[in-house]
Design goal:
Order of helices and strands: HEHEHEHHHH
Keywords: DNA-binding, Transcription, Transcription regulation, Two-component regulatory system
GO molecular function, one term: DNA binding
Strand order of the largest sheet: 1-2-3
Protein name: GacA
Strand content: 5-15%
CATH superfamily of the largest domain: Response regulator
InterPro entries: CheY-like_superfamily, Sig_transdc_resp-reg_C-effctor, Sig_transdc_resp-reg_receiver, Tscrpt_reg_LuxR_C, WalR-like
CATH class of the largest domain: Alpha Beta
Pfam families: GerE (PF00196)
Length: 127
């Protein structure tokens, strides 16, 4: 999201994802996404989100907004994923998606050794 917005500052990003659990919504919104929807959102909700974002507002699906609001009032139980950098989360998601090191390195323009270093750090941080 950050890279996209850096190269195209006028673009508006609306994330449509299956990731409902924090830290994913928080990180995407912090990275500059103007909207966040789950893949379960209906057509009307998607249209509403696009219209609001196009008008310069932000849109967060109600279930995500409620989850984020509740979390802000709860004492912090740090998620182990909070310790991961954005790149580590990106690589972790690719690993969980059964992508091989070479494919990950090709997609992210990294050497396989760098991907393995990230992989090691991820496993260390998540125990």
């Amino acid at each position: 999201t950050r890279k996209l917005l850096r190269s195209h500052p006028d673009i508006k990003v609306v994330a449509v994802t299956v990731c409902e659990e924090d830290p994913f919504p928080t990180r995407l919104l912090q990275a500059g996404a103007a909207g966040y929807l789950t893949k379960g959102a209906g057509l009307n909700e998607m249209v509403q989100a696009i219209r609001l974002v196009f008008a310069g507002q932000r849109y967060i699906s109600p279930q995500i907004a409620q989850q984020l609001a509740i979390k802000s009032f709860q004492p912090t139980n740090d998620s182990p994923f909070d310790a991961l950098s954005e790149r580590e989360i990106q690589i972790a998601l690719m690993i969980v998606g059964c992508q091989k090191v070479q494919i990950i390195s090709d997609k992210l323009c990294l050497s396989p050794k760098t991907v393995n270093t990230y992989r090691y750090r991820i496993f260390e941080k998540l125990s």
